[in-house]
Amino acid sequence: MRLVIVTGMSGAGRTTALKMLEDAEYFCVDNLPVPFIEKFSELTASGNSEITKVAIGVDVRSGKSLSELEEILERMALHGLDYEILFLDASDEVLVKRYKETRRMHPLAASGRIEDGIARERERLVFLKKHADYIIDTSKLLTRELKQELDKIFVQNRTFKNLMITVLSFGFKYGIPSDADLVFDVRFLPNPYYYEDLRKLTGNDQKIQDFVMGYDMAHIFLDKLEDMIHFLVPNYVLEGKNQLVIAIGCTGGKHRSVTLANKLYERLQKQSDYGVKLEHRDIGKDAAIGK
After folding, report:
1. Torsion region of 49: left, alpha or beta (phi above 0 gives left; psi -120 to 50 gives alpha)
2. How far is CA 166 from the centre of its chain?
3. Beta bridge pairs of residue 56
4. 35-64, pLDDT tens digit by residue?
5. pLDDT above 90 for 65
6. Does residue 134 sit within a domain?
7. What is the rounded end-to-end Cα distance, in angstroms, of the chain?
8. What is the structure's pLDDT at 272?
9. Does the pLDDT at position 210 exceed 90?
10. Rounded to the nearest 5°, which phi and psi values hold at 183?
11. Where are the alpha helices (DSSP H) in 24-154?
């Protein structure tokens, strides 16, 4: 039997993840009282049960009994009850925004500030995150992207490492992305903007891709960048990093940066066990002024 403890920060997508696992034919139980988890696991793991895949949702609504969970999980492991922990996380900024948009009250905020509730929740869940097999940061994930990541882990049974890589194109004229970990400037490449028939196109168009990739410099840059990323990523993982934003910029964020972001994304997606997603921050801005 496969047993998954689904937990994480309130507002990070735990309920959504449970629904997705249910669609993947997991028997899902949300907010099961902590003292019942061990017995429930024993019953479903017994040879008499037809259930082969189980997901149990656990969060701070468990109250004081949440502190008992670490001991219960240790006991389960000693008795040969295997389990995996999926921890859904998001930045404090994103969590506050989600709560304000839905006008919901954080379970630990009472009548106080949402930020205070989030801080208390992080303290109470630190042991679960520490022992988590999978940590998924949903700060920048769309629902379909979260589904893809869960499908890789719990349906396709692919190797998963706790890092989500975002390849982000941007325009320097609109500012460097504040959340970028690595920033690369590709303004050294010839600019399609100066060609009338190419100006209104973007790096998602084949003509622009052919133009940009028609220069050896673009291929050399991609090779060196990919090599560096493959060196850096395992070291970031060892340091506990679970989000990496690689920003590639040109003047307006439409042509060169979009092309190279697309190409890097294709390479990383084919060769990496890490989660990889692609964003073009400035591609939709006024073509008349975007170089």
Report:
1. beta
2. 9
3. 5, 29
4. 999 999 988 887 666 888 999 999 988 877
5. no
6. yes
7. 56
8. 66
9. yes
10. -120, 130
11. 34-45, 69-78, 92-102, 114-130, 143-154
Tokens of 10: 């309130």
Q: Give me the long-range contacts of 76-80 (CB less than 8 A, separation at least 24).
A: 76/37, 76/38, 76/41, 79/42
Answer yes or no: are the C-beta atoms of 41 and 78 closer than 8 Å.
Answer: no
| pTM recorded for the entire structure | 0.70
Contact of 283 with 204, CB cutoff 8 Å: yes
Regarding beta strands 182-185 and 84-89, do their DSSP bridges make them parallel or antiparallel, or are they unpaired? unpaired
Q: Which of these, 103, 113, 15, lies nearest to 59 by C-alpha position?
A: 15
Same domain, yes or no: 143 and 98: yes
H/E run at residue 220: helix 216-238
pLDDT recorded at residue 73: 92
Same domain, 134 and 170: no
User: 86 near 33, Cβ under 8 Å?
Assistant: no
The answer to whether position 288 is within a domain reads: no
Task: Please give the full DSSP string across 124-180, using - where no structure is assigned.
Answer: HHHHHHHT-SEEEE-TT--HHHHHHHHHHHHTS-----S-EEEEEEEEGGG---TT-
Note whether 81 and 168 are same-domain residues. no
Domain end residue (candidates: 121, 154, 187): 154
Domain hosting residue 97, numbered range = 2-154
The answer to whether residue 78 scores a pLDDT higher than 50 is yes
Give the residue from 119, 154, 189 where a domain finishes.
Answer: 154
CA within 13 Å, CB half, 104: 12
Let me know whether 128 and 230 are in one domain. Answer: no
